[in-house]
Amino acid sequence: RICPPPSHESPFPPTPRSIVMLFPLFLLSPVLAVHAFGKSAIDYQFSGRGSPSAIHDVLSRVLDTDSREIFDLNITGSCSEAPPKDSRSRLCFDIGPGREGKVGIRGTSGPEIAYGAAHYLRKYCGMGFFWNRTGGNNILIPQQWPSPNATTIYRATDVSYFMNVVTFSYTFAFYDFEHWEMMLDWAALGGVNLALAYTGQEEVYRKVF
Protein backbone atom coordinates (compact mmCIF):
# COMPACT_ATOMS: atom_id res chain seq x y z
CA ARG A 1 0.00 0.00 0.00
CA ILE A 2 1.35 3.36 -0.98
CA CYS A 3 0.70 6.12 1.54
CA PRO A 4 -0.39 9.46 0.10
CA PRO A 5 2.13 12.28 0.33
CA PRO A 6 1.83 14.44 3.43
CA SER A 7 -0.53 17.35 3.13
CA HIS A 8 0.87 20.85 3.54
CA GLU A 9 -2.53 22.36 4.07
CA SER A 10 -3.26 23.97 7.42
CA PRO A 11 -5.50 21.89 9.71
CA PHE A 12 -7.25 25.11 10.69
CA PRO A 13 -10.00 26.73 8.65
CA PRO A 14 -8.94 29.74 6.60
CA THR A 15 -8.98 33.05 8.45
CA PRO A 16 -11.68 35.37 7.16
CA ARG A 17 -10.25 38.20 5.10
CA SER A 18 -12.00 40.77 7.27
CA ILE A 19 -10.09 39.58 10.36
CA VAL A 20 -6.78 39.63 8.49
CA MET A 21 -7.44 43.20 7.42
CA LEU A 22 -8.31 44.25 10.98
CA PHE A 23 -5.17 42.75 12.53
CA PRO A 24 -2.95 45.80 11.79
CA LEU A 25 -5.63 47.98 13.40
CA PHE A 26 -5.45 45.80 16.51
CA LEU A 27 -1.69 46.32 16.69
CA LEU A 28 -2.07 50.06 16.21
CA SER A 29 -4.89 50.47 18.75
CA PRO A 30 -2.63 51.88 21.53
CA VAL A 31 -1.30 54.51 19.12
CA LEU A 32 -4.80 55.37 17.96
CA ALA A 33 -5.93 55.69 21.57
CA VAL A 34 -3.20 58.22 22.29
CA HIS A 35 -4.28 60.32 19.31
CA ALA A 36 -7.94 59.99 20.27
CA PHE A 37 -7.60 60.97 23.92
CA GLY A 38 -4.62 63.30 23.69
CA LYS A 39 -1.36 63.47 25.60
CA SER A 40 -3.11 63.64 28.97
CA ALA A 41 -4.07 59.97 28.60
CA ILE A 42 -0.45 58.91 29.12
CA ASP A 43 1.21 61.99 30.64
CA TYR A 44 0.60 61.14 34.29
CA GLN A 45 2.17 63.42 36.88
CA PHE A 46 3.38 61.29 39.79
CA SER A 47 5.23 63.94 41.78
CA GLY A 48 3.41 65.23 44.85
CA ARG A 49 0.72 62.54 44.87
CA GLY A 50 -0.15 60.43 47.88
CA SER A 51 -0.02 61.18 51.58
CA PRO A 52 2.30 60.25 54.45
CA SER A 53 -0.76 59.24 56.48
CA ALA A 54 -1.71 56.56 53.93
CA ILE A 55 1.83 55.18 53.91
CA HIS A 56 1.85 55.11 57.71
CA ASP A 57 -1.29 52.96 57.49
CA VAL A 58 0.48 50.58 55.08
CA LEU A 59 3.53 50.25 57.32
CA SER A 60 1.44 49.84 60.46
CA ARG A 61 -0.50 46.96 58.89
CA VAL A 62 2.62 45.21 57.63
CA LEU A 63 4.69 45.70 60.80
CA ASP A 64 1.71 45.19 63.12
CA THR A 65 2.78 48.21 65.14
CA ASP A 66 2.24 51.97 64.94
CA SER A 67 4.70 53.19 62.31
CA ARG A 68 4.23 56.79 63.45
CA GLU A 69 6.42 55.95 66.42
CA ILE A 70 9.17 54.72 64.07
CA PHE A 71 9.12 56.82 60.90
CA ASP A 72 9.04 60.52 60.13
CA LEU A 73 7.48 60.54 56.64
CA ASN A 74 7.22 63.58 54.38
CA ILE A 75 6.45 64.35 50.74
CA THR A 76 8.82 66.86 49.19
CA GLY A 77 9.29 68.52 45.82
CA SER A 78 12.89 67.36 45.43
CA CYS A 79 15.55 65.33 47.19
CA SER A 80 18.70 66.52 48.92
CA GLU A 81 21.01 65.33 46.13
CA ALA A 82 20.73 66.20 42.44
CA PRO A 83 19.82 63.33 40.10
CA PRO A 84 22.56 61.57 38.14
CA LYS A 85 23.21 63.00 34.69
CA ASP A 86 21.89 59.86 33.01
CA SER A 87 18.76 59.71 35.18
CA ARG A 88 15.46 59.31 33.34
CA SER A 89 13.39 60.29 36.37
CA ARG A 90 13.17 63.03 38.97
CA LEU A 91 11.24 60.83 41.40
CA CYS A 92 13.33 59.96 44.45
CA PHE A 93 13.52 59.50 48.20
CA ASP A 94 15.89 60.50 51.00
CA ILE A 95 16.65 58.34 54.03
CA GLY A 96 18.29 59.78 57.12
CA PRO A 97 17.76 60.77 60.74
CA GLY A 98 14.29 62.24 61.27
CA ARG A 99 12.63 64.38 63.89
CA GLU A 100 12.36 63.19 67.49
CA GLY A 101 14.91 60.44 66.89
CA LYS A 102 12.77 58.71 64.27
CA VAL A 103 13.83 57.33 60.90
CA GLY A 104 13.34 60.09 58.34
CA ILE A 105 11.96 59.26 54.89
CA ARG A 106 11.35 62.09 52.41
CA GLY A 107 10.07 61.37 48.92
CA THR A 108 8.52 63.03 45.91
CA SER A 109 5.29 61.02 46.20
CA GLY A 110 3.59 58.36 48.30
CA PRO A 111 5.12 55.36 46.47
CA GLU A 112 8.60 56.83 46.94
CA ILE A 113 8.29 57.16 50.70
CA ALA A 114 6.72 53.68 50.89
CA TYR A 115 9.61 52.20 48.94
CA GLY A 116 12.08 54.27 50.95
CA ALA A 117 10.70 52.83 54.19
CA ALA A 118 10.85 49.32 52.73
CA HIS A 119 14.43 49.95 51.62
CA TYR A 120 15.34 50.90 55.17
CA LEU A 121 13.58 47.85 56.63
CA ARG A 122 15.37 45.53 54.21
CA LYS A 123 18.84 47.04 54.51
CA TYR A 124 19.01 47.92 58.20
CA CYS A 125 16.58 45.45 59.77
CA GLY A 126 16.87 42.35 57.58
CA MET A 127 13.18 42.27 56.72
CA GLY A 128 11.57 40.99 53.54
CA PHE A 129 8.15 41.33 51.93
CA PHE A 130 6.86 38.39 49.92
CA TRP A 131 3.76 36.55 48.75
CA ASN A 132 2.07 34.38 51.38
CA ARG A 133 2.55 31.28 49.22
CA THR A 134 6.30 31.87 49.11
CA GLY A 135 6.71 32.22 52.86
CA GLY A 136 5.07 35.57 53.52
CA ASN A 137 6.68 38.62 55.06
CA ASN A 138 9.78 38.31 57.19
CA ILE A 139 9.17 40.84 59.97
CA LEU A 140 11.79 41.27 62.69
CA ILE A 141 11.05 44.12 65.08
CA PRO A 142 14.33 45.28 66.66
CA GLN A 143 14.61 46.44 70.24
CA GLN A 144 16.12 49.67 68.93
CA TRP A 145 15.63 50.94 65.39
CA PRO A 146 19.01 51.49 63.66
CA SER A 147 19.88 55.03 62.65
CA PRO A 148 20.38 55.10 58.86
CA ASN A 149 23.10 56.84 56.92
CA ALA A 150 21.94 59.73 54.75
CA THR A 151 21.02 58.24 51.36
CA THR A 152 19.29 59.51 48.22
CA ILE A 153 17.91 57.11 45.62
CA TYR A 154 16.30 58.01 42.28
CA ARG A 155 13.96 55.88 40.22
CA ALA A 156 15.36 54.42 37.02
CA THR A 157 12.14 55.45 35.24
CA ASP A 158 9.02 57.32 36.29
CA VAL A 159 6.68 54.34 35.99
CA SER A 160 6.82 51.08 37.93
CA TYR A 161 3.75 49.04 37.01
CA PHE A 162 2.32 45.67 37.92
CA MET A 163 -0.54 43.34 36.94
CA ASN A 164 -1.23 41.70 33.60
CA VAL A 165 -4.16 40.31 31.63
CA VAL A 166 -4.03 36.81 33.11
CA THR A 167 -3.64 37.85 36.75
CA PHE A 168 -6.35 40.48 36.56
CA SER A 169 -8.92 38.21 34.91
CA TYR A 170 -8.15 34.83 36.49
CA THR A 171 -7.13 35.75 40.03
CA PHE A 172 -8.25 39.21 41.10
CA ALA A 173 -11.84 38.52 40.09
CA PHE A 174 -12.09 36.40 43.25
CA TYR A 175 -10.31 38.76 45.65
CA ASP A 176 -12.11 40.19 48.65
CA PHE A 177 -11.12 43.40 50.43
CA GLU A 178 -8.59 41.67 52.69
CA HIS A 179 -6.76 40.22 49.68
CA TRP A 180 -6.79 43.54 47.83
CA GLU A 181 -5.47 45.40 50.87
CA MET A 182 -2.61 42.94 51.28
CA MET A 183 -1.83 43.10 47.56
CA LEU A 184 -1.75 46.90 47.45
CA ASP A 185 0.39 47.08 50.60
CA TRP A 186 2.88 44.72 48.96
CA ALA A 187 2.84 46.80 45.76
CA ALA A 188 3.44 50.05 47.65
CA LEU A 189 6.43 48.61 49.50
CA GLY A 190 7.80 47.49 46.13
CA GLY A 191 7.62 51.03 44.75
CA VAL A 192 4.75 50.35 42.34
CA ASN A 193 3.05 53.56 41.23
CA LEU A 194 0.87 52.32 38.37
CA ALA A 195 -1.55 49.38 38.41
CA LEU A 196 -2.72 48.07 35.04
CA ALA A 197 -6.49 47.70 35.43
CA TYR A 198 -8.08 45.80 32.55
CA THR A 199 -11.66 46.24 33.71
CA GLY A 200 -13.92 46.49 30.66
CA GLN A 201 -11.13 45.92 28.14
CA GLU A 202 -12.80 42.85 26.64
CA GLU A 203 -15.95 44.88 26.03
CA VAL A 204 -13.93 47.50 24.15
CA TYR A 205 -12.41 44.77 21.97
CA ARG A 206 -15.87 43.30 21.34
CA LYS A 207 -17.27 46.61 20.17
CA VAL A 208 -14.23 47.60 18.09
CA PHE A 209 -13.39 44.29 16.42
Automatic annotation (TrEMBL):
Question: Residues of the signal sequence?
Answer: none
The molecular function terms in GO held by this entry are: hydrolase activity
Pfam families attached here? Answer: NAGLU, NAGLU_N
Q: Does the keyword Hydrolase apply?
A: yes
Q: Which UniProt keywords apply?
A: Hydrolase, Membrane, Transmembrane, Transmembrane helix
* Ranges of residues in domain Alpha-N-acetylglucosaminidase tim-barrel: 161-209
Domain of life (superkingdom): Eukaryota
Q: Transmembrane segments in this chain: where?
A: 19-38
Record domain Alpha-N-acetylglucosaminidase N-terminal: where: 54-146
Protein's UniProt name = Uncharacterized protein
